[in-house]
Amino acid sequence: MKSHKLLILFLIVLSIQAWTQSETKPNIVLILVDDSGLMDFGSFGGEASTPNIDALAKEGMMFTNFHTSPVCSPSRAMLITGTDSHLTGVANLPEMLPSGYENEPGYGGVLNNRVQTIATRLKENGYNTYATGKWHLGHDENTLPSARGFDRTFILGASGADNYEAKGYLPMKATAQWYADGKKTDLPDDFYSSKDYIERTIDFHESEKNKGAPFFSYIAFQAIHAPIQAPKKFVEPYLDVYKKGWDVLRQKRFKTAKEMGIIPSNAAMNDMFPQFKKWDQLSQKEKDGYTTDMAVMAGMLEAMDFYIGQYITYLQSKGLYDNTVFVVTSDNGPDGGDFKGNAFMRKWQESNGYHSDKNRAGEKGYFGALGPEFAFALASPFSFFKYYTGEGGVRTPLIISGKNIPSAQESNSFCFITDIVPTILELVGMEPRSNNLYAPITGKSLLPHILDKSKSIYDEYEGVGLEVANSSAYYLGDFKIVKNNIPLGDNKWYMYNLKTDPGETKNIAKEYPVKFKNLMDEYKEYAKSVGVIEMKKGYSAEKEVGKKSMIKVLKNNAIYIAGFITLLIGLILFWRRKEKEQL
After folding, report:
1. What is the chain's Cα-based Rg?
2. Lowest mean pLDDT among 277-281, 291-295, 375-379, 550-554
3. Is residue 562 predicted with pLDDT exceeding 60?
4. Which ranges of 431-540 would DSSP assign to H, the alpha helix?
């Protein structure tokens, strides 16, 4: 009789534990890669070894039709709010915004108070909230992550920086500042961005007083943003991988995309832009420079994955892994900025301690960059890359994996970066909130589709608009209208059927004039509703960055320039006086 009672008691305890575990809110880990195209991870067909990310992909759902903004800050704003970038205050990058626009609604370049972050929402629901890595949404007392819902933070405030020391990567960004829990901080001597972001996140867990609460970790890596850098051991395996050049790489990824079902077997791909350099016309020295930078890029991805693995191992050791959902994505496509293409940039890099020594590739002081040709190849089978709303600039990888997520699933359904917040909210049992105090969440939860792929994410009448730096797009069903800004675009509108032509090779605007007009009307309504402001004629994001960089250099060296001009004038006057004396 006594043993019978003990058995009943034991069964009751097991039932309570099972019920408690089923009601436990899942932990959320949001991992953001910088400038990674759709096919860069191993599980998406890339050359880099990313076993930890690949394992997450295998244990969850891979999305191959996920879209972002073509540049970082607007993507980051939408990622953590679920709201269109214009409504968050980050319609464009401050570095790319012409003077006079910063006071326009939506164009302040920092996260405004019209939106709440996912961290704020989760914190209200009992979560511990952590942020490490690149922030780039403001760095004052009102816009740092410590003021936007995150309990513990260690972040880079700038658009990018060196991965080994506290210095910038552009003439207009010659310095870089890190912040810890809202205050400026110094970097340790052995700093490497991917390593330290993970180590700090683990430190937050270890020092947490309320260890029983669920947690939200936002880890925004600098990989693989310029300057591309990685420890030598990660770079060496890739030194020969890209030696055949960008044309071969582009065709290889095109073929892989078909084999993986990312694009239809009969899909076409655009040629390289005619103004791009030809691989077979480069000198051997030039080829070596490009292939070395690409090896560093792949090594940087592998290094990031290695440290993600360390975090996964930590969560497993603490019994937290099984109750965690992982979201892994990128902010935009590959970066085609020509960081080494002109003498001004090379001279500035040298004067600031950067080098391109192949024997020290990826190590401290090395400045690696893709260049437009390899960026275009990495973006294949799509067209364009970062800064443009062609698919190569906005279609990036997305993985959602972990607790209650079906494993070994793939989806080619269209989705957008604003969908991440409502998905997380539904995963933790919260409803997206839209009221008079805050701008509406414009994204949709992916969870119904994740649990049942037959359920569509966006209905055929639900469109999604996008605009950054005069490049625009509107998606509706299988169709897309798109306008790409100069210099690679022509500021004209085109229409494509992405289901049959994801490479955007055949403009069907004239073939379907009624459809084209309807989508144009939808885009105009979207632009009006969120407050899109067209840039002035001739605007180019690349030129704006170059102009601001030049102005910054001139200001920083004003005293030397003034001294040189004074000396030159003095010499001229001296020689003229001498000439008069001789006469």
Report:
1. 25
2. 550-554
3. no
4. 447-451, 513-530
Task: Tell me the whole-structure pTM to 2 decimals.
Answer: 0.91
Helices 541-556 & 558-582 angle (0-180, nearest 10): 70
What whole-number distance in Å separates Cα of residue 260 and Cα of residue 270?
A: 19
Go through the chain and tell me how many residues it has. Answer: 583
User: Closest Cα partner for 217 from 202, 227, 233?
Assistant: 202
And the tokens for 284?
């051997």
CA 455 and chain centroid, separation: 28
Tokens matching residue 135: 């922030």
Q: Which CATH class is domain 24-530?
A: alpha beta
For residue 21, the Cα-to-chain-centroid distance in whole angstroms is 34
- In b/e form, how buried is each residue of 506-533, taking b as 16+ CB within 10 angstroms? eebbeeeeebbeebeebbeebbeebebe
Q: Where are the beta strands (DSSP E) in 293-392?
A: 324-330
Backbone angles phi and psi of 153, in degrees to 5:
-145, 150
User: For residue 184, is pLDDT > 70?
Assistant: yes
Distance of CA 218 to the CA centre of its chain: 13
459 by DSSP, 3-state: which?
Answer: coil
pLDDT tens digits, residue range 125-177?
A: 999 999 999 999 998 888 999 999 999 999 999 999 999 999 999 888 788 99
Task: Kindly give the residue spans of alpha helices, DSSP state H, lying in 391-472.
Answer: 391-394, 420-427, 447-451
CA atoms within 13 A on the CB side of 430: 21
